[in-house]
Amino acid sequence: MRIIHSSKEMQNAALELRRAGRRIGFVPTMGYLHEGHLSLVRLAQQHADVVVLSLFVNPTQFGPQEDFSKYPRDFARDEALCRDARVDILFNPTPEDMYPEGHSTFVEENALSRGLCGASRPGHFRGVAIVVAKLFNIVLPDVAVFGEKDAQQLRVIRRMTRDLGFGVRIIPGPTLREPDGLAMSSRNKYLGPEERIQALVLKRSLDKAVALYGTGERRAEVLHTAMVAMLKSAPLARIDYVEIVDDETLERVTVIERPALVALAVFIGKTRLIDNVVLRQPT
Amino acid sequence: MRIIHSSKEMQNAALELRRAGRRIGFVPTMGYLHEGHLSLVRLAQQHADVVVLSLFVNPTQFGPQEDFSKYPRDFARDEALCRDARVDILFNPTPEDMYPEGHSTFVEENALSRGLCGASRPGHFRGVAIVVAKLFNIVLPDVAVFGEKDAQQLRVIRRMTRDLGFGVRIIPGPTLREPDGLAMSSRNKYLGPEERIQALVLKRSLDKAVALYGTGERRAEVLHTAMVAMLKSAPLARIDYVEIVDDETLERVTVIERPALVALAVFIGKTRLIDNVVLRQPT
Question: Which single residue of A94, A247, B35, B54 could bond B91 by disulfide (Cβ 3.0 to 4.6 Å)?
Answer without folding.
Answer: B54
